[in-house]
Design brief:
The protein has 513 residues and is of the alpha+beta class. The protein has 16 helices and 16 strands.
Length: 513
């Protein structure tokens, strides 16, 4: 009891230090937490002087105490995480207070000061769980197109059998409609849906419509934000999308912002709610070299080029927003109806009596202080075939042991988000190259990598030091991701592929400079 009461008091002091609440708010927050933990009175002794950057240590202690009291089932990780959000919910500012402070900072100090405040709030409230994110494994891979960034994502724990069994017992639910709806603020969560008591969003206006800004709790890169429409409506790439992207980057010129495509296979993980992703980060794609330059007589004030990049990309640069938007709209309209059977590109196919569209675009925008706005337009096609039932322009089967999920916006830009299973699997494979275990033992432990293990043994042998063996495996994972991106490119980096790219650009009205 005393230990819990002291931890509560320390959390209250932390919350005041980081401006989550004020001294006056401590009365309400203290009583809320005492009630949550079933305590009749607060800590009466001295509280140690401390200045913590994040509340992780305090929350872990409180969660252990709550588990002992049976306030949640500690064998189910999702319920522990949900109870953590419930604790922090007691010391959070109200949504209106966050929005008001964000707006005031924007007006007095600019949009960067506003986002700095909001991002810090998400960290100190443990909505962005920095201690868990720090466990992610990251490295760089230098290949044919420059440097790619590889991440093995350990933030989301894999589901254990007990969690899966409990999820099956959950009744069907339609509230919130998805994880991006505004109704998530303060939501208590359930075993198959995260709690959001410590979640806050701020309202924005994009082209006269109400949108919201929030940060991703998983932060794949610096200030990884999500910008989402107020209404729960499906993802759509349309002319208005470009205007909204420009409006956002105009207001937040320190952020890159882009949209996942709006079709299955080539789209993002949430196609049910219109949203963008962005952040204060320079992605590998933004450093890509120019392949060819073009001009278009209707848009004389913009620079048009293709990139030396595995996923086919047209880059449009300039200061004239109307011309850039008009080019993007023509690009989208032309690509939607474009077919080139020689390049495996069909705009539509007939399936079960219906005309099914296959072409769409992934647009990405950032601002450069000298060059102006930089808009990357990535043509996508989600057609499948008998040879590639998962997608012609999708990671092919020989890559699935490393990556089989969609190549979405973040990965198009050269940042790999790979599954957590690779942490242990990569270590096992590295032990083969270091002569610590036999190839057959490794294949038994990680059968999905059997063919790859044979390839690596032939290439590297089995006498590497443990450090060099692990480095070799990381490099080969990077090479696999590079190949993934090449598979996703509709126009390949081959003479035939570039000729096909030229045919499309000619159809668009572009001419080589």
């Amino acid at each position: 009891m005393a230990q819990t009461a002291l931890l509560i008091e320390r959390l209250l002091r932390f919350s005041v230090q980081h401006s989550l609440i004020t001294e006056l708010d401590m009365y309400v927050a203290r009583n809320t937490l005492l009630d949550l933990f079933g305590l009749s009175e607060p800590w009466a002794g001295e509280v140690p002087e401390e200045h913590l950057d994040v509340p992780t240590e305090l929350l872990e202690g409180l969660l252990d105490e709550a588990a002992k009291k049976g306030l949640f089932d500690n064998e189910i990780p999702a319920l522990r995480v949900n109870f953590e959000a419930r604790i922090m919910g007691a010391v959070m500012p109200r949504e209106s207070e966050v929005a008001a402070k964000f707006d005031a900072l924007w007006k007095t100090s600019g949009s960067k000061a506003a986002t700095d405040y909001f991002y810090d709030l998400c960290i100190v409230s443990n909505y962005i769980r920095t201690a868990q994110i720090a466990k992610n494994i990251q490295w760089e891979y230098t290949g044919k197109y420059g440097t790619l960034e590889i991440t093995i994502n350990l933030t989301k724990p894999e589901k254990d059998p007990k969690t899966i069994a409990l999820e099956r017992l959950q009744p069907a639910a339609s509230y919130p409609k998805c994880m991006l709806c505004p109704e998530n603020i303060g939501y208590a969560g359930r075993v198959n849906f995260p709690a959001r008591q410590n979640h806050r969003i701020v309202p924005l206006s994009l082209c006269g419509e109400r949108w919201y800004l929030q940060y991703s709790p998983y932060v794949y890169y610096n200030e990884h934000c999500i910008v989402f429409a107020e209404k729960h409506e499906p993802m759509r790439i349309q002319p208005r999308t470009f205007a909204q992207l420009f409006d956002f980057v105009r207001q937040f010129p320190h952020y890159t912002c882009g949209s996942n495509a709006d079709l299955p296979i080539v789209g993002g993980s949430i196609l049910s709610h219109m949203h963008f992703q962005g952040g204060c980060y320079t992605f590998p794609m933004q450093r890509a070299k120019t392949q060819c330059t073009y001009f278009h007589p209707l848009y004389p004030d913009v620079k048009i080029e293709t990139l030396c990049w595995p996923v086919s990309t047209v880059r449009v640069t300039g200061h004239d927003i109307p011309q850039m938007q008009a080019f993007a709209e023509q690009f989208l309209q032309t690509w939607r109806g474009y077919s080139d059977a020689a390049a495996d590109i069909l705009a539509n196919t007939e399936e079960n009596g219906e005309n099914v569209p296959h072409n769409t675009v992934t647009p990405i925008l950032h601002h450069d202080s000298e060059a102006g706005y930089v808009l990357d337009l990535v043509p996508r096609n989600n057609r499948t075939s008998e040879e590639y039932p998962a997608g012609i322009f999708h990671p092919h089967p020989e890559i699935h042991h490393i990556k089989k999920e969609n190549i979405g916006l973040i990965e198009v830009m050269g940042l790999a988000i790979l599954p957590s299973r690779l942490e242990k699997q990569a270590a096992v494979v590295a032990r083969v190259l270091a002569g610590r275990v036999s190839a057959e033992e490794a294949k038994a432990a990680a059968p999905v990598h059997s063919d790859w293990i044979d390839f690596l043994v032939e290439k590297y042998g089995c006498n590497l030091s443990e450090a060099k063996a692990l480095e070799a495996v990381k490099q080969e994972i990077g090479a696999k991701f590079e190949t993934c991106l090449e598979h996703a490119g509709v126009f390949k980096q081959t003479p035939a592929g570039q000729a096909a790219f030229d045919r499309f650009l000619a159809k668009l009205g572009c001419r080589k400079s």
